[in-house]
Write a structure and sequence with these properties.
The chain is built from 24 helices and 22 strands. It is an alpha/beta fold. Among the domains are: 49-157, Beta Barrel (OB fold (Dihydrolipoamide Acetyltransferase, E2P)), CATH 2.40.50.140; 258-446, Rossmann fold, CATH 3.40.50; 456-633, 3-Layer(aba) Sandwich (Rossmann fold), CATH 3.40.50. Bound molecules: adenosine-5'-diphosphate and magnesium ion.
């Protein structure tokens, strides 16, 4: 669908290739650090400053300072021929003293052009002393006198990537900033005044032209304003989704409890107190007349599946259908295996639909779903496909939701009429972050584990002892243990991840033979299944070591796996390590988790990993991670699906987040379609932060 983004924002949403000095090669680099659009550069705010206002005479410029000097060029001294180690030197000076500019691998033609003998130039850089003589190695700036004001100022410093020079990036950002239009004010006038914040336009200018280091502080008014804008767009988008869900009347679903009683009788255990509490919250929501949108949060192994099943049975008891959506095929099949015997015991039909369900089997299944013969349908995002029609979908469970966006949440619920939705997540998201990911969604927490879980002994081991670790694993395997071997996470490079996993696999296989299996995200579904089956099965000749990239991180259940080795643990988020570790010690046997780290560890890294040894409480761990690393990195990966803020810092701007939530609520209650002048300006805000989905909802809603 075409975006209705206001045209005033068009310049900001054009490609950075439009900026001066940016060709196709640089676009790639800029995309890597900031993004491909002009607006992304606005959000790439400085990480430091260089103050170039100090402009002494040459003879008075002290060692070690950044100085902007006006000099006359006296002489060039190129290095002797064929001796590239000697630098190219240019002698300059003023009436008070001399300074030598030093260029390693300097190109003579370029230097002769930029520093013509007998002319004056402005140079800026760090003054050094060598053999009692002043010198400046590779000045940051060399410009004609007329351009002194461009240099003699406080210069923002931006984070870079290899191949991208500070000058090029700064120039592009400066150009981007000049493209920022004046936008209609979307903040409440009284609030804006009280905060003494500048307009959006001025705030953008200000953060990119820092006066001193205070401009970089989280508490700088311009920075706060931009952070608030970002948080408000996030909270407003979530509030709109919620409003849309709320506006649709749900249908009171109560059921007679007959199926639930059968399942309870068939379960080999009793529900924990936490499971019962969550269930009664869900039951009450479902019985209510509004659509349910509830988050069920519970650590790995806290028993979410059975809660979901009981809730789905309520829908089935009323004669309608339920769906359970998992993020991966492996998980969809695992759910299926857990749930099928129970459903059979209750006399109802459960089926699974993934992208692998094809041909006649698929047609037959779709017919059974459309006809209502299937009571519960488990699947992956294949459940969204257009030709999947339910006779009457009343309840949908979305497992491990953080893999899915708001968008998908809406798509699935569009398949039913007033469908109630339960979202399950094993990620112990701290409260503050829950707010950014789900807004004011109702939350049930499973804060009590089923009995019989064994503690996991967690140890830190230096990667230097990799070989001993492999020996220990080999011994454990010969004693009947099953081992997960998790390969290093390499940010943003699936290819390297894969290479690392394959290499480790080859290595372990050389050592342990056929007993080692490999699983990673790039494998074909059938291969993945084969690896999982071999590892989870009881066969004598099945896999005993599963080398995996983080594809196993969510949900996988192999109760008799007792050992986990995680390579480069320091690269993972704590919450992620915790989730991984939750895979072991499930089957009534205690587990061992070896966190292999690359020495030396920083103090923070040490503290983080130590936290994992101390506690098994996912929420505590997540809070700690948030405290130590800040919001963006809590989950350690981009794919976490939690919103990443570019301007707001969840810790520093926590109070702004609360205000943004309240403000969003108020806006929605007064102007739910964003039609007032402020409402219209808020639409621009939503587009500015690329919350197009939320605005779209307004039009259709
Ligand atoms: P989650 O999906 O929250 O990670 P699961 O639903 O897979 O956890 O449950 C983990 C294990 O705990 C399963 O083997 C399940 O059978 C078991 N389990 C669930 N609830 C209970 C309970 N109340 N008492 C004992 N075991 C339970
Ligand atoms: Mg689960």
């Amino acid at each position: 669908m075409a975006s209705l983004r206001p045209t005033i924002l068009d310049p900001l949403f054009s490609s950075v290739v439009k900026l001066p000095g940016i060709g196709p090669r640089l676009v790639k680099l800029i995309e890597r650090i900031a993004g491909a659009k002009v607006v992304d550069l606005l959000w790439h705010i400085p990480v430091g400053i260089v103050d170039r206002r100090f402009a002494p005479k040459v003879g008075e410029s002290p060692a070690g300072t950044i100085a902007t000097l006006t000099v006359e060029v006296h002489a060039h001294t190129p290095p002797p021929p064929r001796n590239r180690r000697v630098p190219y030197r240019v002698n300059c000076g003023d009436e008070t003293g001399e300074i030598t500019l030093v260029f390693f691998h300097g190109r003579a033609d370029y230097l002769e052009r930029t520093l013509p003998v007998g002319e004056k130039r402005v140079i800026s850089g760090k003054v050094e002393f060598f053999d009692d003589k002043r010198q400046m190695t590779h000045p940051d700036h060399i410009v004609p006198l007329a351009e002194i004001d461009d240099v003699k100022r406080v210069e923002p410093v931006y984070s870079l990537t290899e191949g991208l020079s500070p000058k090029t990036l700064s120039k592009a950002i400066r150009a981007a900033v000049t493209m920022a239009p004046e936008l209609p004010e979307w903040l409440d006038a009284a609030y804006l005044k009280r905060q003494q914040w500048p307009s959006w336009h001025d705030a953008v200018q200000h953060v990119h032209t820092p006066k001193d280091s205070s401009t970089l502080a989280f508490s700088d008014p311009s920075r706060e304003r931009l952070a608030f804008d970002e948080l408000l767009s996030n909270q407003l988008a979530l509030a709109l989704v919620r409003l849309k869900t709320r506006k649709q009347r749900g249908r009171p679903l109560s059921g007679d409890g007959a199926l639930r009683r059968k399942i309870e009788a068939a379960l080999p255990y009793k529900l924990t107190g936490a499971q019962q509490r969550a269930l009664s919250e869900i039951t009450a929501d479902m019985a209510g007349e509004y659509r349910m949108l509830r988050l069920l949060q519970g650590d790995v192994g806290s028993g979410k599946t059975v809660v979901a099943l009981m809730a789905m049975l309520i829908a089935v008891e009323t004669g309608s259908q339920a769906a359970l959506m998992a993020p991966t095929e492996i998980l969809a099949h695992q759910h299926m295996e857990t749930l099928r015997p129970l459903c059979t015991a209750a006399g109802i039909r459960i089926e699974v639909l993934t992208s692998r369900t094809k041909g006649r089997a698929r047609t037959a299944l779709l017919e059974a779903v459309a006809g209502g013969a299937v009571n519960i349908l488990v699947g992956t995002h294949a459940l969204f496909q257009k030709d999947v029609d339910f006779r009457d979908l009343a309840f949908a469970v979305i497992d491990e939701q953080h893999r899915f966006g708001v968008h998908q949440r809406l798509e699935l619920t569009a398949k039913g009429n007033g469908t109630d939705v339960l979202v399950m997540t094993a990620t112990p998201i701290p409260r503050t972050l829950t707010l950014t990911a789900y807004g004011d969604m109702d939350v049930s927490r499973l804060d009590e584990k089923p009995p019989g879980r064994m503690p996991v002994d967690t140890r830190l081991v230096s990667l230097e002892r990799l070989s001993e670790t492999a020996d220990a694993v080999a011994r454990a395997v010969s004693n009947g243990a099953k081992v997960y071997w998790i390969c290093p996470l390499v940010e943003e490079s699936e290819k390297i991840d894969l290479a690392a996993a394959e290499e480790r696999y080859a290595h372990l296989r050389a050592r342990l033979g056929e007993q080692v299996a490999l699983i990673h995200g790039k494998m074909k579904p059938a291969e993945k299944d084969a690896a999982m089956e071999s590892f989870s099965g009881q066969a004598e000749n099945g896999a005993k070591v599963l080398v995996a990239t983080t594809v196993i991180e969510v949900g996988v259940d192999v109760p008799d796996a007792t050992i986990m080795v995680i390579e480069h643990a320091e690269r993972f988020g704590l919450a992620q390590l915790h989730q991984l570790r939750g895979r072991i010690g499930r089957g009534g046997k205690s587990g061992t988790c070896l966190l292999l780290y690359a020495p030396p560890l920083t103090e923070t890294a040490k503290a983080r990993l130590a936290k994992l040894r101390e506690t098994d409480d996912g929420f505590l761990i997540a809070e700690e991670d948030l405290r130590l690393r800040g919001g963006g990195e809590v989950l350690g990966t981009r794919q976490s699906g939690l919103p990443e803020f570019r301007l707001a810092d969840i810790m520093a701007h926590g109070d702004l987040l609360a205000t943004a939530r309240d403000d969003a609520k108020l806006i929605i209650s007064r102007d739910p379609n964003l039609e007032t002048p402020r409402g219209k300006a808020l639409r621009t805000l939503l587009y500015l932060f690329e919350q197009d989905d939320a605005v779209r909802m307004l039009r259709s809603g």
